[in-house]
Specification:
This protein is of the alpha/beta class. The protein has a single domain (5-204), classed as Rossmann fold (3-Layer(aba) Sandwich), CATH 3.40.50.300. The protein is 49% helix and 11% strand. A five-stranded parallel sheet has the order 2-3-1-4-5, sandwiched between helices.
């Protein structure tokens, strides 16, 4: 085995993205989140905005008062009627598979754990935390009040769950069987989560060095 890939699924506000970034920095490997959208755009020749519109959500999903109070800009895209969500996901899936075959890296979200479930060089992690831990993080990151942060967390987790179920044939996003590790970042701590994942790598792949 020449490469290793870490996939990180995360509840909104749990610190999963921060953990993924710190893990990548500690191991000296790239961390991919929204850069996958850019790469998928380049591969397909389609506007990156199309991929942004379906970033871990189903484009047709509607919520009453979705994220009310958050800054948003949404202009109609004339291309979207000609490009299915499934086709866009297919390009992202191809990028994720190509990354897993070619380099060691960390991939955040994008159903990467499911896409790579049959790959022998993958460690999949799910990060979650209680609402009390997530709220102040989201309030600070987005610059919103507590009420809006509550709505943001609830709705974001709902559309991530729907997205995951859609592209995994009905599996559910928080299913612990999908992952090598499920960590509560509030209990373990952000930096300690990084350490736990690194130690697990040594157990699962003894002797492997990045």
């Amino acid at each position: 085995m020449d490469t290793i890939v870490f996939t990180v699924a995360r509840g909104f506000g749990s610190g999963g993205k921060e953990i993924a970034s710190k893990l990548a920095a500690k191991l000296g490997i790239p961390c991919y989140e929204n850069r996958i959208l850019t790469l998928a755009s380049q591969l397909s020749g389609l506007d990156e905005e199309l991929f942004t519109e379906v970033n871990e959500k189903i484009r047709g999903k509607k919520f009453s008062g979705l994220l009310k109070g958050l800054p948003r800009s949404r202009k109609p895209n004339p291309m979207e009627n000609f490009t299915s969500d499934d086709r866009l996901f297919g390009f992202q899936k191809q990028i994720i598979e190509n990354l897993a075959k070619s380099e060691s890296c960390v991939i955040v979200g994008k159903c990467a754990d499911w896409v790579l479930k049959d790959y022998p060089n993958v460690i999949s992690v799910y990060i979650e935390a209680p609402r009390a831990f997530c709220l102040p993080r989201i309030m600070e990151q987005l610059g919103v009040n507590e009420e809006t942060a509550h709505v943001s967390i609830t709705k974001t987790d709902i559309y991530r769950a729907d997205y995951y179920a859609h592209y995994t044939n009905g599996n559910y996003w928080t299913n612990p069987v999908n992952y090598d590790l499920t960590l509560n970042s509030a209990r373990v701590g952000i930096d300690n989560c990084v350490c736990v994942i690194e130690e697990y790598m040594k157990i699962k792949y003894p002797g492997f060095a990045i």
